[in-house]
Amino acid sequence: MRKTFISLFMVIAATLLLLSSCTENDPIRAIPRSASAVLSIDVGQAGGVGNRAVFKALLKLTDADDCGIDFSRPVYLFETAEGNFGLCAAVSNENDLRDFLNAQHEKGLCQAVSAQSGCHFTVVGGSWAAGFSADAVVLLGPIAPSAAQIVYGRIARWLSQDEKQSITASPLYAKLTEIEAPVRLVAQASALPQLLAAPLTLGTPRDADMQQVLLSAAIEPKDSCLLMDGKVFSLNQRLQNDIAMNREQLRKIDGRFVENIPTNALISLLLSGKGEQLVPVMQQNSAFQALLAGATLDDEASQTIKKIDGDLLVNVLNFGSESADLSLKAVLEGGEIYDFSTLKTLPTAAISAYKLPASARQQLENARLAMVLKPAQFSLQTSNSMASVIDLLAKKFPVIVYTTAE
Question: Do residues 131 and 210 both lie within one domain?
Fold first, then answer.
């Protein structure tokens, strides 16, 4: 279910809606302590598509007006330890929410609302379990309709749990509160799919427990793109020392290849360093090694990478469970520029370059590592339940740029 994190990652921009300071009935208490990723959004500072539009797209509803959900209060996105995607929000009026969902049932858009364990439940859009109390609503999915009763029981426990059982007692939440940004994310590296884990966890030792490796990011929408200023770290001091030592092998990017990011790349990775120091760092990272192995680089490319002395651009053009297509562009010793692609003939779209907005270029200036991701390229690799949300995201934020200066 690691693909679920891609869904979470994609919905980040599409749900730039809601967050305020934690209050007694803050819905974040309905997120389980074992959650492997949590995201918060501040509607007062973050810009993006409308909150109702996101709920409509995600749950396949025709409207979301007067639905009993308090759109002026926090919304949190999270991933469970089992790999499910969750969303929770504050309830403004429990009766209005029940009436709204029953009206959706009359339209054939959800099951009839049932009551158990002091809460109300339904399945919305055919694959999202929804449970709500007077304080909060939690959605979890995608699920099989036959598993609804089991999921209802899980949501009921979350809605009634105390702070010691919720995410507020987790190290993830402690780190989340340290980030100052309109949108904040903290996740275990184990929650990341391979395609994202490869670039984001570069520098992590091969034998690291990825549940102990954390990714945090301050996120801000700007100039029609989503800027993520992040870092990878561990609360385990030995592991943190290893990560920091490996990351020291990365130089600051000089931006030489910013103009060479293909429009059709799923992900583009920018970094800089000396090959004899970069290669061991790449070899230690199991996710990055798996990506390179899937691309089946020839001997010439493998040897040439060791001669890098400057910026390196890695473009993931296609990615499957057993194979990948990459293109590389690198500065070698002596200043020579090296080009390589696993595709014998590059499509026309791969030749045209994407022009990054000015804000993204500025963020690259002090970065040691950068990742450029284009949501529209994921549209064909995403489940139907997420396709409409990603369409919203791609229209509003055509590019997501992650950088780290550490």
Answer: no
Determine the Cα–Cα distance for residues 352 and 354; give it in Å rounded to an integer: 7
Residue at 36 is within a domain: yes
For the whole model, what pTM was predicted? Answer: 0.81
Q: DSSP alpha helices (H): ranges in 286-375?
A: 286-295, 299-305, 348-351, 358-364
Question: Average pLDDT, stretch 100-114?
Answer: 90
Q: Two tokens at 250? A: 């990365």
Give the residue carrying structure tokens 């780190």. Answer: 175
Instruction: For residues 275 and 279, give the distance between their C-alpha atoms in angstroms, rounded to a whole number.
Output: 6
Same domain, 214 and 306: yes
Q: Note whether 292 and 357 are same-domain residues.
A: yes
Which tops the pLDDT comparison, 17 or 60?
60
pLDDT in tens, 87-105: 888 899 999 999 989 988 9
**Does residue 404 sit in helix, strand or coil?**
strand
Provide φ and ψ at 66, rounded to 5°: 50, 45
| 235's tokens | 């609360």
Q: What is residue 335's three-state secondary structure?
A: helix
Nearest to 64 by CA among 54, 72, 56: 56
* 154 shares its domain with 58: yes
224 and 140 in a common domain: no
Write the burial class of residue 319 (CB in 10 Å: 0-12 exposed, 13-18 middle, 19+ buried). Answer: buried
Predicted pLDDT of residue 88? 87
**pLDDT tens, position by position, 299-316:** 777 788 889 999 999 888
Per the structure, the complete domain to which residue 62 belongs is given by: 3-175
Each residue's pLDDT tens digit, 119-149: 999 998 888 899 999 999 999 988 888 899 9
Nearest-5° angle of CA 289, CA 320, CA 329? 55
